[in-house]
């Protein structure tokens, strides 16, 4: 082992979150080291956001085109699956990270490839691919940004089946004839949409009562209805109890003993933190656990350890992780500079308040489902006195122009005591581009009376804002 190398900040994990922590630290004048055991750029770049959306974009574009007279006739026939997969490969940079490595170096951070592990307070060891061990020390902070991985259930036969997880589902080089999808969340819904459109016969098996269980109920209902119309089978309220593979065919057994067959089976049943092999035990924390933080993203009970992104289980979304990284970077820099009082009040510069109140999310299914802030159920559970206002998106002039037979729904959840929005949900074609306006309204706590003066352009789908406000005002 060489002599320890000292930095102001050591970052474990070079995904978008770790990259942004390092960037903010460097912008604040601190030195930074970044440690990565796989590809620089992380899950989002190679196995999640980018490849999945590259798979889905042709699917959604074709669906939108088929809803427009004069274009519908020009887009008959199947998708060119080979071209779609090649397009996906481009967006995943062919699973090479040269460009991301260059970016890390361009901000002045040092990159260490290998398995990074805590080795006590402010100490990190990096075991390189050749077995060489390098010790790093952090004068101010170590940031754990190692993300999450797919969580597989304990099922008889699973180890022998070679199941797909989100990684295989976004990087597969062929279209399976039959795909079983276990789960009903975002990954399950998006991948069912993509592979059904690419030519698979998809069967979705969800143990809950609906898809997208963390969103407003109508979101999952509309997505399930569209999947069925596309030819997929969607079963809710079922549990997979065993799986097996024989002669290339996967068999899944569900509750009542019924068996279903597929060529591949995707388990999209949750996430687990990638903290099992990073030395947490050396600082009194449990390996494999989620790390609990305050709103500056500092691990509770520590004055030097930060957990940013998926590992803190606050909001498992790339954009929220990057937001947290900006907050953490600012907090680390301020503390390193001896700022006596950080801005940790509500919406302060060093407080990740949006994790609690204004998280936006888009599910890139057909139709899209997008939300910001709280659902009605979450707002009521939190003790707010609220009213939900719903509107049929198909009744908006811009929606009718966007697509023949436009089907969708909008809801805003109003805090009746403060007359501000706590949450907004849109479901329908193209609604992902509406959600930032909702995020601004929720995060900015814009009074309903003020929103009345934010006039939506006509004829756009955004006119739904006016319709929602009219319905609220009566």
From TrEMBL:
<keyword id="KW-0285">Flavoprotein</keyword>
<dbReference type="InterPro" id="IPR016156">
    <property type="entry name" value="FAD/NAD-linked_Rdtase_dimer_sf"/>
</dbReference>
<keyword id="KW-0274">FAD</keyword>
<protein>
    <submittedName>
        <fullName>NAD(P)/FAD-dependent oxidoreductase</fullName>
    </submittedName>
</protein>
<dbReference type="Pfam" id="PF07992">
    <property type="entry name" value="Pyr_redox_2"/>
</dbReference>
<feature type="domain" description="FAD/NAD(P)-binding">
    <location>
        <begin position="7"/>
        <end position="322"/>
    </location>
</feature>
<dbReference type="InterPro" id="IPR001100">
    <property type="entry name" value="Pyr_nuc-diS_OxRdtase"/>
</dbReference>
<dbReference type="InterPro" id="IPR023753">
    <property type="entry name" value="FAD/NAD-binding_dom"/>
</dbReference>
<keyword id="KW-0520">NAD</keyword>
<dbReference type="InterPro" id="IPR004099">
    <property type="entry name" value="Pyr_nucl-diS_OxRdtase_dimer"/>
</dbReference>
<comment type="similarity">
    <text>Belongs to the class-I pyridine nucleotide-disulfide oxidoreductase family.</text>
</comment>
<dbReference type="InterPro" id="IPR050151">
    <property type="entry name" value="Class-I_Pyr_Nuc-Dis_Oxidored"/>
</dbReference>
<feature type="domain" description="Pyridine nucleotide-disulphide oxidoreductase dimerisation">
    <location>
        <begin position="359"/>
        <end position="465"/>
    </location>
</feature>
<dbReference type="InterPro" id="IPR036188">
    <property type="entry name" value="FAD/NAD-bd_sf"/>
</dbReference>
<dbReference type="Pfam" id="PF02852">
    <property type="entry name" value="Pyr_redox_dim"/>
</dbReference>
């Amino acid at each position: 082992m060489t002599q320890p190398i000292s930095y102001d900040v050591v970052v474990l994990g070079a995904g978008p979150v770790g990259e942004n922590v390092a960037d903010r630290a460097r912008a604040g004048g601190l030195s930074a080291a970044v440690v990565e055991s796989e590809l620089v750029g992380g899950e989002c770049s190679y196995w999640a956001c980018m490849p999945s959306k590259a798979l889905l974009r042709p699917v959604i574009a074709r669906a939108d085109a088929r809803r427009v007279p004069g274009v519908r006739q020009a887009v008959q026939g199947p998708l060119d699956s080979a071209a779609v997969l090649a397009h996906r490969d481009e967006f995943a940079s062919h699973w090479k990270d040269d460009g991301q490595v260059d970016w890390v170096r361009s901000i002045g951070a040092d990159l260490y490839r290998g398995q990074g592990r805590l080795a006590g307070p402010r100490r990190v060891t990096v075991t390189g691919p050749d077995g060489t061990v390098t010790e790093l020390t952090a004068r101010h902070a170590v940031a754990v940004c190692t993300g999450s991985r797919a969580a597989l259930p304990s099922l008889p036969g699973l180890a022998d089946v070679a199941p797909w997880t989100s990684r295989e589902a976004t990087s597969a080089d062929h279209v399976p004839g039959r795909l079983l999808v276990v789960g009903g969340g975002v990954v399950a819904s998006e991948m069912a949409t993509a592979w059904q459109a690419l030519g698979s016969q998809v069967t979705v098996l969800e143990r809950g009562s609906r898809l997208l269980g963390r969103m407003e109920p109508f979101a999952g209902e509309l997505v399930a209805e569209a999947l069925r119309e596309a030819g997929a089978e969607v079963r809710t309220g079922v549990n997979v109890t065993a799986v097996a593979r024989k002669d290339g065919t996967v068999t899944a057994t569900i509750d009542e003993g019924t068996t279903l067959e597929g060529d591949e089976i995707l388990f999209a049943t949750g996430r687990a933190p990638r903290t099992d092999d990073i030395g947490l035990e050396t600082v009194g924390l449990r390996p494999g656990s989620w790390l609990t933080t305050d709103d500056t993203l500092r691990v509770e009970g520590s004055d030097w350890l930060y957990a940013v992104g998926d590992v803190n289980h606050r909001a498992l979304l790339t954009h929220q992780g990057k937001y947290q990284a900006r907050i953490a970077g600012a907090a680390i820099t301020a503390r390193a500079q001896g700022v006596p009082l950080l801005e940790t009040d509500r919406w302060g510069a060093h407080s990740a308040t949006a994790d609690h109140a204004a998280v936006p999310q888009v599910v890139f299914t057909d139709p899209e489902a997008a939300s910001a802030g709280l659902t009605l159920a979450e707002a009521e559970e939190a003790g707010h006195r609220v009213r939900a206002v719903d509107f049929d998106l198909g009744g908006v002039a811009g929606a009718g122009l966007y697509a023949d037979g436009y089907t969708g729904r909008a809801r805003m959840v109003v805090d009746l005591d403060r007359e501000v929005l706590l949450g907004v949900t849109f479901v329908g074609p193209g609604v992902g581009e509406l959600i930032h306006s909702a995020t601004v309204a929720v995060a900015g706590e814009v009074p309903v009376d003020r929103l009345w003066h934010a006039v939506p352009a006509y004829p756009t789908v955004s006119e739904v804002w006016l319709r929602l406000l009219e319905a609220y005002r009566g």
